[in-house]
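Hi all, a correction to my earlier message: I attached the wrong file for Diacylglycerol O-acyltransferase. Here's the right sequence:
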Amino acid sequence: MHDRLSALDASFLFMEDPVTPMHVGGVAVFERPSAGFDYAEVLALIGQRLGYLPRYRQRVVTVPGNLARPVWVDDVDFDLNYHVRRSALPAPGTDDQLFDLVARLVSRPLALERPLWEVYFVEGLSDDRIALVTKTHQAVVDGVGTIELGQLILDESPAESEEFEDTWTPRRQPSRTQLVLDAVTETVQRPGELVNTARVAAQDAVATVGKVTEAISGVAATLRSVARPAPEGPLNAPVSGGRMYSVVRTRLEDFRKIRAEHGGTVNDVVLAVVTGALREWLLSRGAALTSDSTVRALVPLAVSDAETEYSSAGLIGNEVAAYLVDLPVGEPNAVLRLQHVGHAMTAHLDSGRSVAARTLLRVGGFAPATLHSLGARAANSFSGRFFNLVITNSPGPQEPRYAGPARMTEMFPVLPLAKNQALAIGVTSYLGGVYFGLNGDRKAVYDVDLLGGMIEEALEELKGADW
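and the right structure:
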């Protein structure tokens, strides 16, 4: 039988609509080496690595009558040139032009009749830089069998381009009759599966959320612990088809100094900085904040388990727990905001299952892109009534990474928006920098650039804050 989508993966397909595509993106910026690095070399590099990721040559096929969840089948018409695309900015392209392009690219859903990923090779950037923009559907990346493509094409040292000869041979696509027979066979073996499939296919909200929350470690327990919905505000608004994407560049050393001065973790400082920025942003929108005002963030974190071992992909299984954290936007004192955030995170981390950043960085092959993807999966398993925005923070390598001979200089995550979730923030550290990627709805969060500037101001406020 063909590989059937899990209940979690299938739910991401069923939940998707034209204005809320369920893919995770990333932007990696590279220095073009003196010997050059062109589209053909990128095509060859990705083609060489696809042999390690069979899922990237498979597409989703539904079962007639929704008798069972869809299956993964080899794409007999797989076209690498379709998935790895060439784009260019009018030279010398600015960063603003690049991120405007990113916003347009990530707003477009992936074609469900093809393998669910795309890579854009963007040329024309100033200072002889190039960028790779990736889009990968959440149904693809599970952190164990399949990792994010960006994890596989980045190496610890530069590599010369090699000739690529594609010798892959797809398996024959199953007929409709075979799909039905396989579904009937599974139903006989597991009769309860038919009921579950029918519920998911009908997009029964209660059944889907319950099914999905049980599939991500820690989410169901967290959901049960929340007795009230998230505070109302401009972050929870109907999502349109357009996006605004902005980035913020900061230095890791600044976060470490604040941690040393005021305690907590680097992640606490990141969340406190975002809290300060959200406070100023809400005030700029005319929000009436009180001392008790909060914004609830869903913060996915990698966790470990006594029986979990490191997988060959270099991640700790697919163990990502989604924690709900009330960010104290009503608190005017920056240090007190940090203390509140640290206290809230400590309550979650006392479970003993959290994975420290230093542990993740010791795991061979770890890449932030995969953890951001897993974080987005955890976030979208939640009912949006319980949080206002998603914030993922993934530690990255502090040594250079390369795509072929090209040295990566910056990396920015792009998290998807769910229904009525108008903002998502991804944070990644790399090579001494901490990079924020802000994905906002074009109508509801049209001023995402303003929020990005406020992140920089909130960091400066904490750097100069006294006890």
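Sorry for the mix-up. Residues 197-227, 304-318, 352-366 have pLDDT under 50 and may be disordered.
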